[in-house]
């Protein structure tokens, strides 16, 4: 998570786009939940069929990613304030609604409950220098504690990484008269192959979480956070998003 935000907002928000997610696809090695019969006589949990055999239950909650809009901005603020001990500015919440980030910045809903969010920006997007390569910067990634360890954080991050590598043009913006004619088309970004995130020193869970997705700790920045202790941040960098996603470097599967 970053302490501050510097990108200037250029336009307002695009519409909401929801996409159902298959959690199995993001869970990877994790599979079904097994419930054993408690007493072995076929009458307890798992013994509903009277056989006492092991029963496998696979809960399938609906999980969706939804674009950020002015209408759900309050939900994003609430989630961030509950999970992250940093108060983000009005500018932060305006910038993350930038339509060019529509495919990246998402809320995640679990059984129709908003339980997490990911906010990013791009740095050096127009740069061709090796020292300052175009980079996806993860500003905030938050999942409510009761909903963690189910692959929701991973789903948010994978969506951001995939969208950075394979950008899609957002829907055209309506002109001020709202009638649809002459809408402004936002040009798709170029593919970005590098990502980074700041993790507070001592937040080993988040560090491991990023490492599992191909990020490496590169340096520790002292006094990165001004309003929380410890103040240091570990800079986590993924130099090859395609590899992290298991894709060939040219983007083919
Ligand atoms: C970091 C954070 C977003 C991760 O969210 P999450 O939803 O728990 O993430 P995931 O479920 O995808 O992965 C978390 C762990 O659960 C494990 N996991 C994922 N699906 C699982 C499943 N079905 N069953 C069991 N474990 C599972 C993952 O392997 C991972 O383990 P690891 O930490 O050893 O790598 C969340 O912990 C959080 O909001 N933390 C506070 C804010 C923060 O630190 N943000 C990061 C800095 S910006």
From TrEMBL:
Cross-referenced PROSITE patterns: GNAT (PS51186)
A GO CC term assigned to this protein in UniProt: NatA complex
InterPro entries listed in its UniProt record: Acyl_CoA_acyltransferase, GNAT_dom, N-term/lysine_N-AcTrnsfr
Biological processes per GO annotation: mitotic sister chromatid cohesion
One Gene Ontology term of the molecular function aspect: acyltransferase activity, transferring groups other than amino-acyl groups
Keywords: Acyltransferase, Transferase
Ranges where the N-acetyltransferase domain occurs: 63-241
The protein's name: N-acetyltransferase domain-containing protein
């Amino acid at each position: 998570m970053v302490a501050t935000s510097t990108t200037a907002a250029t336009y307002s928000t695009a519409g909401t786009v929801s996409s159902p997610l298959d959690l199995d696809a993001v869970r990877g090695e994790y599979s079904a939940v097994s419930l054993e019969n408690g007493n072995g006589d076929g009458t307890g949990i798992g013994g509903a069929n009277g056989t006492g055999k092991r029963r496998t239950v696979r809960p399938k909650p609906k999980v969706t990613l939804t674009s950020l809009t002015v209408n759900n901005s309050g939900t994003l603020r609430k989630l961030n304030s509950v999970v992250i001990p940093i108060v983000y500015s009005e500018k932060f919440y305006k910038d993350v609604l930038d339509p060019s980030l529509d495919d990246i910045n998402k809320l995640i809903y679990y059984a129709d409950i908003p339980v997490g969010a990911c906010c990013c920006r791009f740095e050096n997007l127009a740069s061709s220098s090796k020292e300052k390569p175009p980079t996806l910067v993860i500003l905030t990634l938050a999942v409510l504690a009761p909903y963690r360890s189910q692959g929701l954080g991973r789903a948010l991050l994978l969506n951001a990484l995939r969208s950075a590598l394979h950008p899609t043009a957002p829907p055209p913006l309506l002109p001020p008269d709202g009638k649809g004619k002459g809408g402004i088309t936002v040009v798709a970004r170029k593919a970005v192959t590098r990502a980074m995130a700041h993790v507070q020193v001592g937040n080993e869970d988040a560090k491991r979480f990023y490492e599992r997705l191909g990020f490496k700790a590169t340096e520790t920045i002292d006094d990165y956070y001004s309003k929380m202790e410890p103040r240091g941040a570990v800079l986590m960098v993924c130099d090859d998003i395609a590899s992290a996603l298991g894709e060939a470097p040219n983007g083919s599967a």
